[in-house]
Fold each of these.
Amino acid sequence: MYIVLLCTVWLFYPEFTACSKDSIWCSVAYWATESAGRIGTPVIILITSFVFAIYAQSLKAKAKTFFKTFIVFSIVLSTFAFLNEHLIKSTLQVARPSHTYIIRQTKSLARLDSLYTLPVTERRKFFQGLIDGDTISFRDTDARVLSHWIEEAGYSFPSGHSFNAFLLGSILAFSIYYMANRNLRWLYILPMTWAVLVAVSRVAIGAHSALDVSIGGALGILVSHTLLYFSVTQALLTHQRHAERG
């Protein structure tokens, strides 16, 4: 599925300028993006924790499994999010495609490297002002996408959404393969399909470049496989049944 992602974003580049108002594709891309965002990610972690808990035998075991899964997933994703925002992105300082597009379309003389030194609230106000002041360039762009451009006022590389999606997708695919009966094992492909859609959506709405999501997805896969490789972390992230099956 990672190869599918690479082929999609590099060979069939889903330019965000095609994400127009009232477009079905734009709605799909937007909600795919939100599914791995600040609200979507916790929801998926909650659902995952609940599903894992179902397979526990006693009520006490169900509660233990639920909270263990939720806490561990939350710690892993929160740790990367913190490192990504405050260390990796701030060190590499790659501008978002959406910000470059806004500056170019409005013919603003502002320098992005200077804008990124401003507080986040000031950056958001600046981009909001540019968009509101141009009644031509953004009239056909979906309002939800414009809001997303303003909200995500930080650096671009690598994509945190893509990391989240491929980390969760990989672990869920592993879990489904071992938890489901033999006839339903093929469902493991669904979490990975979701991960690809999330990463593609990031490019489609202009939040990230193809390189951003490629590296973000690769990091998600690397971290998930590392965690699943060691029996201690595998037991924390998956149902005990996995350890029993080896």
Amino acid sequence: MNWFVQGLTLVLSTIGALLPIVNPLSAVGMVVTITANLDEHERTEQIKRACIYMFFILTSFLVAGGLIMNFFGISIPGLRIAGGMIVSYLGFRMLFPDTVVMSRQEQMEAAAKPDVSFTPLAMPGLSGPGSIAVVIGLSASAQQNDHIVLGHVLIALGIAVVGVISYITLRAATRLSKVLGIAGMNAMARIMGFLLICIGVQFMINGVLDVVRLARTV
């Protein structure tokens, strides 16, 4: 029973760390804009493929996270501090927006593409630098545990749940856009931005504390 609780905690912590960063609500406006010329079935297929791509992109970095860190000589504290800075920056951009997510030219180019599922929906829309940094950090943490393979599987399960939530949210993109309106979407974006800032600052605090612990042991 104890292992079940620990596994469930790891899955839920993965969802809690990733969902505010992936933030499918912030992609609702982009989906409505770049799929305006598609019918409902085509839009659904694009969204489904984008969420599948997001899962494979993030799980690829999950599997290769340790190798990337070892190759570049990146420590876990350094990753946490850098990841916290990226996440906080994204949060500040959402909390205090100064530009649109996509320029008019980018919107026109995306609308003209026959397939927008990989880019810009999956990357950088859903799986951007912030979520990739979090996944690499989760991979590094999982390698410190006794059950490395199981830990990675549970984290991948959390990523899959985030993908399902993203699919459900983006599937209702048109309806959400009409219900919430511009003001509602902006309010939700600011709430998510504040949460991202909190998560990013906590990442940096954990990284600094790790550095202090390492300095004391030297």
Amino acid sequence: MRARPERRGTVTCEVWWATPSGATALAALLEAAEHRRAERLRDHDRARFVTARALLRLVLAARTGTAPSELRLDTTCYRCGAGHGKPRLVGGDGSVSFSIAHSGDRVVVAVADGTAIGVDVEVGAGTGAEELMSLGASILAPAELADYRRLEPSRRPRALAVWWTRKEAVLKATGDGLTVPMRSLAVTTPDEPAALRSTGRARSSTAAMAVLHDLASDERTVACVAALGVASLTVVERDGDRLLASATAPAATGRA
């Protein structure tokens, strides 16, 4: 069992946004295991995966001084030992934490020093009332579900996406992922600032120390980042497309 982290003061988290790209130069930044995983994915899923991993490697390279393609990531699950766990940087001092997510035409990478973080993004939402009610019952705590049912039907898809991203961010930060039922967590309502109310079964010694921050969004997109063991979180959102473009420019790829 991991030790309970000490609560720190304010921590800065960089959040990088990008659009999925099929540029072959990005794939060249990945390691062999990532190439194998990408090959099993369909076109758009592959583009999102490759873009997310390439962006992560570029961000980490700037922090560590190691070439993007030489970074090694470990995805061993702490629960079962399989390779689907939260990625971790191999060979570092453990101070850098990161999380990646993608949905629709958005890719997001969050990076911070000295605190575990998680990020999630959802683009769009279901439109069928029955489908939404079924999904709501599976992810919302009883009080949240009551709030959800009081909403006008037109507001439910976005509200559900807000609840989802807030909870997913916490569970990514703790490393639990979807092994813990989302309905066992409770967060604030979508009309309130993002915050955790209760942790349920989610590795409570760490989840109880989560600080949440909703990210910039539009009418189709919602996103949230969570950090553990900090008093407050400062978030700086950056243009990942520009960083990716630097890796695909002729000078970066060796073309004249």
Amino acid sequence: MSSTVSTFLMFEGKKAEEAMTFYVSLFKDASITHIQRYGPGEPGAEGSVVQAAFTLNGQRFMCIDSSVKHGFTFTPATSIFVHTDSEAELDMLAAKLGEGGQVLMPLGEYPFSPKFTWLADRYGVSWQLSLTKV
């Protein structure tokens, strides 16, 4: 028996492709692997994402543009955790992901990491970025 595990991100409106393209631009080992869009007369807005898949450093993600309005959105209770051994990469990710978003824990030294930040990006997706102790 075989299984695949993915992180699934559900956006409202036409944000999935924009977010996915943004995320892929930030990581060296990243790519969009699949995009299926709504066509004319289908339940979602024409051109919006029915389902898409992308990878960030080997981690598989899926995303959609929900055509249904929901009473919820992303929450910091679940976040994407990035470990890096490069302070320059951590600083770049913090700056770019934090642009237009919200800082939940400011970039700094913590007992569990020499440099760490927790933020919600402009799409509401929560990220924890941590410098790996060496």
